[in-house]
Design goal:
2 strands; about 5% strand; mainly alpha; about 120 residues; 5 helices; about 55% helix; single chain; two-stranded antiparallel sheet
């Protein structure tokens, strides 16, 4: 019997490898036991929505809709794997940012004249 944790980890590893090496086909093979859930994930990922901060997570509603439309129930262990794949995808897609530089805090608040000078300069 196959370990579900092993299967989840192999699929997440394959996804991370494919994201790191787009277009290459020499990466980890999808285990036969995971091909169905892999295909479901690819279908759901293709319809993924995005926002200002990048891709949105795949919702349970989207998973349920896929299941109803295809008349294929998604088993609970497959849901767990789909969520793990989604987390791996979102983690890989997250922007790699560094901490913003700290701006010095002025000793005193700006005066009204200093604020008006900024607007005068901007007006030309």
């Amino acid at each position: 019997m196959i370990s579900l944790e092993w299967l989840r980890d192999r699929l997440c590893d394959a996804l991370r490898w494919q994201l790191a090496h787009p277009g290459r086909t020499d990466g980890p093979e999808i285990p036969p036991a995971g091909r169905r859930v892999w295909g479901i994930f690819l279908a759901l990922n293709a319809g993924r929505c995005g926002g200002m901060n990048g891709p949105n997570p795949i919702s349970a509603v989207e998973m349920e809709a896929w299941s109803r439309l295809h008349r294929e129930p998604i088993r609970p262990f497959e849901l767990d794997i789909l969520h793990a794949l989604d987390r791996a995808m979102l983690s890989a897609a997250a922007p790699k940012t560094t901490r913003p530089a700290q701006r010095p805090i002025p000793d005193e608040p700006p005066t009204a004249d200093a604020i008006l000078a900024v607007f005068r300069k901007a007006a030309g």
